[in-house]
Amino acid sequence: MDLVACQYGCDEPGCDFGGDAKNGMGIAAQHHQKYGHSTWVDTIYTHRYGSGGDSE
């Protein structure tokens, strides 16, 4: 599996900070340091060589 991106966001009410980026963990950490908000990061993986999966 290869790391594609991290989804990140902020738990602070009314704050719309968030998105996805390869360096999402660093972006979320900077947001926390700058504003003191509680942030979260979810790691997204993808298969380089997949077998099967959903097909339409």
Total number of beta strands: 3
- Please give the largest β-sheet: 3 strands, antiparallel
Structural class: alpha+beta
**Rg computed from alpha carbons, rounded to a whole number of angstroms:** 14 Å
**Biggest sheet strand line-up:** 2-1-3
Quaternary class: single chain
Q: Hey, roughly how much beta strand do the residues contain? A: 35-45%
> What's the mean pLDDT score?
83
Outline the structure in words.
This protein is an alpha+beta fold. The radius of gyration is 14 Å and the shape is elongated. The protein has one helix at 24-35; strands spanning 2-10, 18-21, 39-46. Helix content is 21%, strand content 38%. Strands 2-1-3 form a three-stranded antiparallel sheet. The longest helix is centred in the middle third of the chain and has 12 residues, at 24-35. A hairpin with a 7-residue loop joins strand 1 (2-10) and strand 2. The model has no long low-confidence stretch (mean pLDDT 83).
Q: Would you spell out the secondary-structure blueprint of this structure?
A:
Elements: E1 2-10, E2 18-21, H1 24-35, E3 39-46
Antiparallel strand pairs: 1-2, 1-3
Task: List the defining traits of the structure above.
38% strand; elongated
What is the structure about, briefly put?
The protein has 56 residues and is of the alpha+beta class. It is built from 1 helix and 3 strands, in the order ββαβ.
